[in-house]
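Hi W., the magnesium ion complex you wanted:
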Amino acid sequence: MIRAVLFDLDDTLYGDFSTCDRLGLQAAGQYAAAHAGIPAARAEEAMRRGRLMLHEACPDEPESHDRTLFAKWGLEWLGVNPLPYACGMHAAYWEAVLGAMQRREGVLELLTALHTGGIPVGVCTNMMADIQMQKLCRLQLSEVCGLLITSEEAGRDKPHAPIFHLAVKRLGVPAQDTLMVGDNFNHDVRGALGAGLQAMWLNVRGDPLPVAGTPAYVATSFPDAAQQILQLCGLSGTRQE
Ligand SMILES: [Mg+2]
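Structure:
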């Protein structure tokens, strides 16, 4: 029996992140064009470059997700002083992402059913806490998503164990009775299994299982995941309205 459920956020509770990210980078580029006089496409490319350099410099560290740093490193790469522009590019990026997110079908209903059924729930996500809070509010999930546990608080990204250990401690349920649900096989499935949790892979693209024999549940859509989760939690009689 599963007694607590953790969800990844990006590309799990909403989709799709790559479209949101593309629109965010475009918006940041447009901001730089308007305020720094850099061609928008060039500024966008610089932000992508900043992201790559940051990921290389501090892999799996929470600050590697900071869009202010993407912009800062990118503008420095262009030879432009980032101080007047990096924070504005960060804000433009996130405003575009927040506006483009689409909550997955059945998410609100599942979280409400778990909440009503007394199952502790959390969101376990690689990112800074402030932006993930804004996303959950914008997705209208802030009242039903339970605890937010970010890698910023754990000090290390998934798939490393500290964030899972922190999450189960905060939920107050043993790791082996806790299910982690997410779209990223390495972060959400291998990471959770490695930390002693159970795992469900949300595989909406129908990708082949990367590691044969992985003892994980697999769902092909969010409604499929919801049905399985309710059953695993002993709430399958719960009507989803
Ligand atoms: Mg994800």
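Residues 17-36 form the longest helix (20 residues).

W.
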